[in-house]
Design a protein that fits this description.
three-stranded antiparallel beta sheet; single chain; DNA-binding transcription factor activity; Arc Repressor Mutant, subunit A; mainly alpha; about 10% strand; about 160 residues
Length: about 160
């Protein structure tokens, strides 16, 4: 095999890759189904509210929030616009540096994430944690870290 030829996946590698791709597609969809049904929000919107709820003073710069939710600023802005219309957050200029915009969780937004969290956590347990042993959970965590490190420094 020359250096120019692709290094094709063997059967085990292909099975591993296809299992990961299937999970990467199906898990977010399953989380969306539960959150849409029970809370009327998408998983992405939940991550925005949860990220703000875990932040000091329930506020973050939009760029930091985009990193947290692993989304582009454009996608984040569209979702934040919907969440603003619901009264769950608002945007304001960062008083420390007016070039930045802060997203701020309102009391209503705090209530929304508090109401949605138990069902979301139950679904995460059902789909991801409960099927695995503690050792497998640790392996999955390490696998996720290694893949994210290979992707690059911009990964969360």
């Amino acid at each position: 095999m020359s250096a120019d030829e692709p290094r094709w996946l063997d059967d085990d590698e292909q099975a591993t890759w296809l299992a990961l791709v299937s999970t990467a597609v199906r898990l977010p969809a399953a989380l969306d189904v539960q959150l849409q049904r029970d809370a009327g929000i998408s998983h992405f919107e939940y991550q925005i509210l949860a990220g703000l709820s875990m932040s000091p003073e329930r506020k973050l710069r939009m760029s930091t929030l985009a990193d947290f939710v692993d989304g582009s600023l454009s996608r984040l802005s569209h979702a934040v616009k919907r969440l603003e219309k619901e009264g769950w957050l608002y945007r304001t200029a960062d008083p420390a540096d007016g070039r930045f915009t802060l997203a701020v969780l309102t009391d209503e937004g705090w209530g929304k994430v508090v109401d949605a969290a138990p069902g979301h956590v139950a679904e995460v347990r059902r789909l991801v944690l409960d099927p695995l042993t503690k050792a497998q959970q640790k392996q999955l965590r390490e696998i996720g870290r290694r893949i994210n490190n290979a992707i690059g420094p911009d990964s969360p």
